[in-house]
Specification:
The chain is mainly alpha-helical and 382 residues long. The protein contains 16 helices and no strands. 78% of the residues lie in helices and 0% in strands.
Length: 382
């Protein structure tokens, strides 16, 4: 059981997240940069950045990249790996808004079926790609749409509940996604699969930052600057061996996430309108912050779709046409490009860096005084 959990829930999800980074995320960043530079004047280089980013973030390209990442992480044969390009592209396009989850499930299935026949015949160069591609595309045609609908429904439920109960859901989303980031599973892949944007996406970023910055700051005594960088800009997963030895060290950053989550949703109303995968990244390479910033200037398709969905619901509840129009305009405006002011930048700084560090340091100090954290309990293994 542990073997399959690692293969499908750790390795495959991690590979899928890497595929998303190398396509959608990079494409969004490059495209947004190009669009902002074009404001200075039309320039072939700036236009090239926009075009390159657009190509990188197209649905079939993103799907292919995710499937390749999944296959690579599962260490499949070369022919199976290359055949997953077509499978991933098909699954992501047919899966719609919930495409990433469809790619994850279908790419795993196609990879396993392709691996069953790989190198078993003398015409392997034909049999392996045929089995991988045909099985993957067949399942995509039959199931991708429904997998996507299910993922999209769950994501919308979480986001809607966060809109209605920002305090409670701010705590829940922040803590759960933050814990997932520190565990050896991919919080980024989870957020991408559910299309987590808006206030819920902001809470997810807050939780991830609390874990990464929290562990980096509270373990500074043991790990110094190297640990600060490796955990703060790398991953809090480095602390997992220490968490297994002493689970109490996890209390401080988790409590911090329970505080920064509702601060994000209720006070600063920090929204992730960039790529959903950024919601589960925290301060890893500053991807979470870059996602929020790109969402300010260039909202992602997922964020816009969510705003439209809210607008449609509001219109149905409106008493007359004029009220409906005002509701639609007001809600849709939430995910349109904005020019961030002091509140946005200050909120980003506080939620992602200042509060996680201060709160985790304070809680960690209290734990040390109580004897719950002993000397070198937070020391990273060499």
């Amino acid at each position: 059981m542990n073997k399959y959990v690692k293969r499908y829930c750790v390795d495959a999800m991690g590979g899928m997240a890497q595929g998303l980074f190398a396509s959608l995320l990079v494409g969004t960043i490059v495209k947004t940069l190009g669009q902002q530079l074009l404001r200075l004047g039309v320039n072939p280089v700036f236009q090239f950045l926009v075009n390159a980013g657009t190509f990188c973030s197209e649905g079939h390209v993103v799907g292919a990249a995710m499937a390749m990442g999944i296959g690579f992480a599962m260490q499949v044969n070369g022919l199976v790996l290359f055949s997953l390009v077509a499978v991933g592209a098909t699954a992501n396009v047919l899966g719609g808004a919930g495409g990433p989850l469809a790619v994850l499930i279908i790419a795993i299935l196609a990879a396993e079926l392709g691996s069953l026949v790989s190198k078993k015949t003398k015409v392997d160069i034909l049999v392996t790609p045929l089995v991988t591609i045909l099985s993957g595309i067949l399942v995509s045609v039959l199931c991708a749409k429904y997998i996507g609908i299910a993922a999209n429904w769950v994501g919308k439920l979480i986001m809607l509940t966060t809109e209605l109960h920002p305090f409670v859901m701010g705590i829940i989303v922040s803590v759960v996604v933050g814990v997932a980031l520190t565990l050896p599973i991919s919080s980024a892949a989870i957020c991408a699969a559910l299309g987590l944007t808006g206030l819920a996406g902001g809470a997810a970023v807050a939780g991830c930052c609390a874990q990464m910055v929290g562990f980096a700051v509270m373990s500074f005594k043991e790990n110094r600057w190297g640990g600060l960088v490796s955990q703060g800009l790398g991953t809090s997963m480095l602390q997992m061996p220490n968490i297994i030895k002493n689970p109490k060290i996890w209390i401080a950053p988790t409590l911090a996430s329970a505080i920064t989550g509702p601060i994000s949703t209720c006070l600063f109303k920090l929204q992730m309108n960039g790529a959903a995968v950024s919601s589960g990244m925290g301060t890893c390479g500053l991807v979470g912050q870059i996602g929020i910033i790109t969402g300010w200037f260039n909202p992602s398709e997922q964020a816009v779709n969510w705003a439209v969905h809210k607008a449609e619901k509001a219109a149905l509840l409106a008493e007359n046409a004029e009220e409906a129009l005002l509701e639609v305009q007001a809600i849709t405006q939430e995910s349109l490009a904005i020019t961030p002011g002091f509140k946005e930048w200050f909120g980003l700084l506080m939620v992602c860096f200042v509060l996680p560090g201060l709160l985790s340091w304070a809680f960690g100090l209290a734990e040390r005084k109580l004897g719950w954290i002993q000397e070198n309990d937070l020391l990273l293994p060499e």
